[in-house]
Amino acid sequence: xxxxxxxxxxxxxxxxxxxxxxxxxxxxxxxxxxxxxxxxxxxxxxxxxxxxxxxxxxxxxxxxxxxxxxxxxxxxxxxxxxxxxxxxxxxxxxxxxxxxxxxxxxxxxxxxxxxxxxxxxxxxxxxxxxxxxxxxxxxxxxxxxxxxxxxxxxxxxxxxxxxxxxxxxxxxxxxxxxxxxxxxxxxxxxxxxxxxxxxxxxxxxxxxxxxxxxxxxxx
Length: 219
Prior knowledge:
Helices cover 40% and strands 22% of the residues. The chain has 219 residues and is of the alpha/beta class. The chain has two domains: 114 residues, Response regulator (Rossmann fold); 100 residues, Arc Repressor Mutant, subunit A (Orthogonal Bundle). Strands 2-1-3-4-5 form a five-stranded parallel beta sheet, sandwiched between helices. The protein has a four-stranded antiparallel beta sheet with strand order 6-7-8-9, with helices on one face. Strands 10-12-11 form a three-stranded antiparallel beta sheet. Helix 4 links the parallel strand 4 and strand 5. The protein is elongated, with a radius of gyration of 19 Å. The mean pLDDT is 86.
């Protein structure tokens, strides 16, 4: 389970983010000021930090340089391009402007964790009997070969790379374009339905679950 520290003095926004993270299977921690955050980090190292800039006491700009070895996503109402550039050059991994959509934030978090996951660069991805060789582009389930279209292959690869998380629709559409150009928002559901059917025909199980309003994940 991944640990995420939310550093934000806005209780409503913090509660909203914490609830969304817990639904995704993350473990969430809270700090309401820069000083409290540094005290927490002196004892515990989370896997990722969500950092607001306008904090009481030490600001987010003052806290960021003191965070080492942990990816930080800035969440701020500051929309000026110079602010964003300064934070990204100052060590932030990403920058999300308030107000934001939760599914976008969850997708950006998933991207950060995918970069940490050694399986993301593995040549053979596996989950629950499914095997996908990213070199030969061959898929199998329980030893039975599954013939996939380019788009189905791209979708399955991304789901396997994020097998412990929900892959947001926006993330799917953004990332699978690296492997196939023919998937659009309107056709994504059809491609996933065809992929789900092919996997079900191989072993009788439904391997892909739709998470309403967010995206898809492997069961």
